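2024-03-11 09:14:02 INFO queue: dequeued item Peptidase C14 caspase domain-containing protein, len=358
2024-03-11 09:14:02 INFO validating residues
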Amino acid sequence: MERTALCKRCNTMYSETKPEPKCKCFVPTGRQSGDNQERHHRFSQIVRKFAQRFQQCSSGNESTNVYSMNVKPSGTGSAETHPRKRALLCGVTYNKKKYMLKGTVNDVKSMREFLISQYGYPEECIRVLTEDEKEDIFSPTKKNIQESLKWLVEGSESGDSLVFYFSGHGLRQPDFNNDERDGFDETICPVDFMQEGMILDNEINSTIVWPLKKGVTLHAIVDACHSGTILDLEYIYNPELNDWEDNSAPSKARKSTSGGIAICVSACDDDKMAADTTAFTGKAMAGAMTYLMIEMVNKNAGITYGHLLKRMREMVEQFNDKSCLGKFLPKVFYHRKIQNALLSSSEPFDVYEKKFLL
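2024-03-11 09:14:37 INFO prediction written
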């Protein structure tokens, strides 16, 4: 006659007379003595509880913000010391809008990894603003970008390296203050720019360029349309002449630092459009300038600013050559060619001597 028993752990009836009694928490490993079977029951129950906890943790608990790129400092004290490295990375997608962009978050992820792996930026010293972040304070709104720009330069001291990165839409509007040589102010567009307005180059300059003390270096990398002089810096590099051109304000308005240096690499001239494309990655959308800059630096350790711009221009020319791409060009670039990056600075320097260091 078959004897049955009730498992006290999973409340399942199982046969004691069969060679391998089974229940929900029994792990078959051949014939078992009573003690061995009890041990397997206990071990299996622990495994089941662990699996349940793991499933709960990975089933989309919004409060844990698993995918956040913002890392809080460990411990009770500040993780920052001097000299320090600090970065603000903004990627604006404009979700569900007609002017939505698809590659900006990819750009931010690439730039964040680039700063950490290539230049040793601490994770907790990199602030990321994207629409993928769960906390409202990390949404790329006008207010959050403005406050984060102040955070970027706050308390900076000699030896500090700061980075401002923006991937999103850029626009321009007429200049009524006579402080722009081309008659236009350049802007970046926060996620709520249709309601709250754009952030002008004048404001960016006064917020993160003016406060730079002697020995502090700021790099701005802006992958947006009309971004050429988005920091309103006093010098623009002309690669054709291998010389710096004057970009000071006709009105004599201040554009200078307080002794530090600000350098900006932007995606295109003030009157040009930037490209968001899959041409370089194959699948994922990405800003052309961001991809090329990271790719060139990763492949050429110790590259100078001049050689970086030169090699980026060579890559752009290759991809803009219709004889190479044929019918593929209009489809990928939406009938626009990739534009060459532009370099501007608060002071002139030898671009073929100075190494590109963030």
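2024-03-11 09:14:37 INFO annotate: Residues 4-56 form one domain.
2024-03-11 09:14:38 INFO item closed
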